[in-house]
């Protein structure tokens, strides 16, 4: 498969895109590369993708009730698949509860 950086570079609309636009495009590309032809992921695939591609944000969250609730939802046997919108909600939820977000908030940028 084509590396994400190369895929990003090939998207004409992102030629002069902002860091935030590129961040969201990267999330969309990671999702699309894992999704089925209908553009959806099984819950097991979603969990695997989060564990491999979002490791820094979920590390150390295993004992938090909200994290366990999210993961247990993904562990449920269900025919329901996750679409991109639901995936992004999961990303935001996991980001908001993460220790890494606090570390990011504490960063001081220097000029």
List the helices and strands and how they pair.
Layout (H helix, E strand, L loop, with lengths): L3 H6 L9 H16 L8 H11 L1 H4 L6 H11 L8 H13 L2 H8 L5
Helix pairs in contact: 3-5
Organism: Dryobates pubescens (Downy woodpecker)
GO molecular function, one term: calcium-dependent protein binding
InterPro entries: EF-hand-dom_pair, EF_hand_dom, S-100_dom, S100_Ca-bd_sub
Question: How would you describe what is shown here?
Answer:
It comes from Dryobates pubescens (Downy woodpecker). The protein is mostly helical and 111 residues long. Helices cover 62% and strands 0% of the residues. It has helices at residues 4-9, 19-34, 43-53, 55-58, 65-75, 84-96, 99-106. Helix 3 (43-53) crosses helix 5 (65-75). The mean pLDDT is 89.
Helix content: 55-70%
Quantity of strands, as a count: 0
> How many discrete structural domains?
2
Strand-pairing-aware structural class: mainly alpha
Strand content: under 5%
Unreliable stretches, pLDDT < 50, 5 or more residues?
Answer: none
Distance, first to last CA: 38 Å
Rg from Cα: 15 Å
Shape: flat
What does the largest sheet look like?
A: none
Mean pLDDT: 89
Number of helices: 7
| Order of H and E elements | HHHHHHH
InterPro entries: EF-hand-dom_pair, EF_hand_dom, S-100_dom, S100_Ca-bd_sub
Protein name: Sentan
Pfam family, one: S_100
GO molecular function, one term: calcium-dependent protein binding
